[in-house]
TrEMBL record:
The lineage of its organism: Bacteria, Bacillati, Actinomycetota, Actinomycetes, Kitasatosporales. It comes from the Bacteria. It holds the Pfam family YjbR. InterPro entries: YjbR (IPR007351), YjbR-like_sf (IPR038056), YjbR/MT2646/Rv2570-like (IPR058532). This is DNA-binding protein. It comes from Streptomyces antimycoticus.
């Protein structure tokens, strides 16, 4: 999939998650996806390449970077806790959605229980 398709899939999926808000900030080409005011995904273009930047568990982030050529450290973010995903031959729709929901759950789990729109331990997991 190319970068534009990656951004469309990730963005469409993210806006459907409970409590998600979309903001355009920093400049017109940055989109921030937030849950209860906390960012779980950013989208922009690194020189000519549309990307999605997602929060990830540090161990998972390292494994993803090793396994997928199109996953790199988070652009303009903490390199240990964030990953950048760009379109390419190693990325498919299923992986994009998994990365978006994982990022969302990580951020939701850091919210006070009274502010969580879902239970991050169970939301989006298959039985």
């Amino acid at each position: 999939m190319d970068g534009q398709e990656l951004q469309k899939i990730a963005g469409d999926y993210a806006v459907g998650l409970p409590g998600t808000d979309l903001e355009h900030r920093l400049s017109p080409d940055w989109r921030l996806y937030k849950v209860r005011g906390k960012v779980f995904m950013l989208m922009t273009e690194m020189p000519g390449r549309p990307v999605a930047i997602l929060k990830a568990d540090p161990d998972d982030a390292a494994a993803l970077r090793e396994q997928y050529a199109d996953v790199t450290p988070g652009y303009h973010m903490n390199k240990r806790h964030w990953i950048t995903v760009e379109g390419g031959g190693t990325i498919d729709e299923k992986l994009v959605k998994e990365l978006v929901i994982d990022s969302y759950r990580l951020v939701v789990s850091g919210l006070p229980k009274s502010e969580r729109p879902v239970d991050p331990r169970t939301y989006g997991r298959r039985a």
